[in-house]
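User: Before I run my own analysis I want an independent prediction to cross-check against. Here's the chain; please return only the structure tokens and, at the end, one sentence I can use as a sanity check.
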Amino acid sequence: MRAALREDIITTATALFNKRGYHRVGMRDIAADLGISTGNLTYHFPKKQDILQAIMEQNFHVTAAGENVTGLGQLHVILTKMLDSLKINAFYFRDPSLFPLNDQGSRDVAELYTILLKALKSLQEEGLFSPKLSPDRQEDLTRLLMLSHLGWIQQSDTFSPVQSMDRARFLRAHWTLMEPYLTGKGREAFRRDIEPLLGV
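Assistant: Structure tokens:
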């Protein structure tokens, strides 16, 4: 498959799924938006589920990309990528009925959990988080952050602007949870590297 056509299919399908919902979009709709025949589309992606899996595979590779975390700024990038992926593919994360259609989904979630947990451990080893952030608390914090992401994307279109949290405020809330565990060195890094990004 031409790489450009594959990207066009993924981009077009994602936009349609976000606009109408996955179940309300057919292969004919995607082909029509692309200006190609349904046969041409199904040659590349035999089923709509194959497109969904390609979207989520791409989403995972963008979100999980990164290097060993040694600074708070890198942790902020991971959190930002995770939230951006939720917004870009909101149709998927707002509809739990789609989760079983993505064969790789549970493994991707487990891998993201590992990446985030490893980042917290690494930052503690760098002296940025105190020993109070014990292994059990690291796991609890990681689970809480990841579970809150699903709640955040599902509420963003449900509640009024007064009740909901925009992306910037939600990112600040992440750091509100982590800030009590920062060491003196960590607080200095937070003021230097994170506060300007949060607009505080």
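Sanity check: The CA atoms of residues 5 and 44 lie 9 Å apart.
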